[in-house]
Design goal:
299 residues; alpha/beta; Rossmann fold; DNA polymerase, domain 1; 2 domains; seven-stranded mixed beta sheet; 7 strands; elongated
Length: 299
């Protein structure tokens, strides 16, 4: 399927627009602009004096966002870069502070469907997983080159799979015969290691292993930490940061960061508990089911 044909639905959009009121001349940084869905909703409320900055590591996403946002009246700047470099990009534009920083950490449907990205086990794809193609290490490199202990540790740490040692053992045994180069091969090996067919499990047996590899390949948690560390200095007084996370590792980082900054007097936490999608939103957009939104305000 052509991934360009897949519609990207912005997650928790209604809640965000309720909770965030931007001034007409405000500055918004969309740290993961994706296809521009969230930015479009906020951009429509911004006037000619306002600035919208969009970052994304995926070149295709940048192109789609440019097309979606082309008619906004505010100034829009795009950077094909990781949000870990948010501070540098704002400096480049001579912008000191933002009214709103948004980070939607989810992988889009089009990225999952993209044969070249190799994120999905639902179809056989090259085992790549680099959302940013400028990165050097692929998932195949990790799976075929890491020693068994390092591989088990990675699957346990980033995938939270208690069967990580068994999975690593099966991977190492299979790669001795031939390299593991596709998502289908890897999914079959993990399913075999866990011993039960995918259809008899609540989630596919390979889900956690694929999550672990994607996080490792794209340095996701390190980059999120850099974004969170930068945010307090980049927000205006009463400016807000909103982060939508999709698994417990991301969610814990955001929760701890917000709490720590509240203790230091930098933030007031707006969402005492994370906001989750309504049943109706999950029906309309099943990928939203694990989303959790946390918002903090600069004190």
């Amino acid at each position: 399927m052509d991934s360009s044909a897949i519609q990207h639905i912005p997650v928790l959009a209604d809640v965000l627009t309720e909770k965030i009121n931007l001034p007409p001349d405000g500055v918004m940084v969309d740290a993961t602009i994706g296809h521009g869905g969230h930015s479009y909703l906020f951009g429509q409320t911004l006037g000619p004096e306002a600035v919208l900055i969009g970052l994304d590591v995926d070149e295709n996403s940048i192109r789609r966002a440019q097309s979606k946002l082309k008619d906004l009246t505010c100034e829009v700047f795009f950077f094909n870069t990781n949000f870990a470099r948010i501070s540098e990009k704002m400096q480049q534009l001579a912008i000191d502070k933002a009214d709103f920083i948004l980070a939607d950490l989810g992988v889009s449907s089009s990225q999952l469907a993209d044969e070249q990205t190799g994120l999905s086990f639902l179809r056989d794809m090259p085992l790549d997983m680099r959302i940013d193609k400028r990165l050097k290490t692929t998932a195949a490199d990790i799976v075929n080159k890491k020693d068994e202990k390092s591989l088990a540790d990675l699957i346990y740490r980033f995938g939270q799979d208690r069967a990580s040692r068994r999975i690593a053992r099966f991977i190492v045994r299979h790669r001795r015969a031939r390299p593991i180069t596709t998502t289908g091969q890897l999914a079959a090996i993990v399913s075999k290691a866990l011993g039960r067919p995918a259809k008899k499990r609540r989630i596919h047996p390979a889900t956690r292993t694929f999550q672990a590899l994607r996080i490792a390949v794209n340095n996701e948690l390190d980059n999120l930490t850099k974004l969170l560390d930068s945010a307090p200095d980049l927000l205006k007084q009463t400016g807000r940061i909103a982060v939508i996370s999709f698994h417990s590792l991301e969610e814990s980082l955001v929760k701890l960061d917000f709490k720590m900054n509240e203790k230091k007097g930098f933030y007031k936490i707006i969402t005492k508990k994370p906001i989750v999608p309504s049943t109706q939103e999950i029906i309309e957009n099943p990928r939203a089911r694990s989303a959790k939104l946390r918002i903090a305000q600069k004190s």
